[in-house]
């Protein structure tokens, strides 16, 4: 039986990075802000057009250290329809997550629900560019400015995405990107913070290095070992050369999925606004069982039987997970509906026409089946 993976990281050939690897090994410098991590910061800064880029050991570490700047015990507004790391970064900083619903079409944070849940104890909005698609940026920026609170973006999925012709990375007080193996810029593990704020930059430099100040061994803040390794940076430096090509290829695959599956009853898609370009870290459909003929879970199982790997991102949503169910009394109808229906399909830049056709044909076949819901 053939096997089609959900994602395949795009990685360089050994000969493409051999010179850099030898330089790293000869130097004996594997971490601690070496030349390759500094160069990767420079390259990401040039791409996103921001003043500062701070590399980290992971996107989760970056987000956790960024939120460490907020007052302990204050509230952070965050969508429930996101990966668990978004809210874990809130909790590790003794902050209070306030879950909000998503806009059903964009599947990103709903500004009107955010507005209704801001209190005197709210310190920040943490928006998520879900699946690599830009969220409702202007609406959230206006709301944060009006209420005098911080706006951060969890852009873990979204490196290479654009809004109004500009790469994500330059919005809000700061943005956080992931460089893990499932992302468009796979470094194995890693993350970066992008910001135009000198204060954020200074705070992150010492927090990622145990809290040490730049010119001494005096601990200034609570920190941790958040440094990116040189090996991971070498992978990133090679892959950033083709990030635009990666986005183009994924958008082409997404269009083919939409064209082929859009005529099926009960199949829906995340909307991407005309002035936005999604990075399509994931390509996610929704499955209405009444119209499609079988449930999302049955479709997932049927595709697995055909060797096709899929994932139900994000099901269950965070507010329905065991850890939060007893302490959070949120009712989020759009989020809950998406949690029942979402299914992420295989997408990667070197996905062949034959692989894509096989996935599409398998879904069409399931729609025509008489399997009961």
Strand order of the largest sheet: 1-9-8-5-4-2-3
Classify the secondary structure makeup into a structural class: alpha/beta
Count the strands?
A: 13
Calculate the mean pLDDT score and round it: 95
Which word captures the global form? globular
Low-confidence stretches: none
Give the termini separation: 26 Å
Name the CATH superfamily assignment of the largest domain: Type I PLP-dependent aspartate aminotransferase-like (Major domain)
CATH top level class name of the largest domain = Alpha Beta
Any idea what the CATH architecture of the largest domain is?
Answer: 3-Layer(aba) Sandwich
Any idea of the CATH topology of the largest domain?
Aspartate Aminotransferase, domain 2
DSSP strand (E) fraction? 5-15%
- Supply the number of structural domains: 2
Rg from alpha-carbon coordinates: 21 Å
Task: Summarize the helix and strand pattern as letters.
Answer: HHEHEHEHEHEEEEEHHHEEEHHHHEH
Write structural notes for this entry:
- The chain has helices at residues 14-27, 35-48, 59-67, 84-91, 111-117, 137-147, 198-207, 230-239, 243-261, 289-292, 296-305, 322-325, 333-341, 353-368, and strands spanning 52-56, 75-79, 96-100, 122-128, 150-154, 162-163, 166-167, 174-178, 191-195, 267-269, 276-277, 283-287, 342-345.
- By secondary structure, the protein is an alpha/beta fold.
- It has two domains: 14-241, Aspartate Aminotransferase, domain 2; 243-368, Aspartate Aminotransferase, domain 1.
- The strands form three sheets. A seven-stranded mixed beta sheet has the order 1-9-8-5-4-2-3, with helices on both faces. Strands 7-6-11 form a three-stranded antiparallel beta sheet, with no helix packed on it.
- It starts with 13 loop residues before the first helix and ends in a 5-residue tail after the last helix.
- The model has no long low-confidence stretch (mean pLDDT 95).
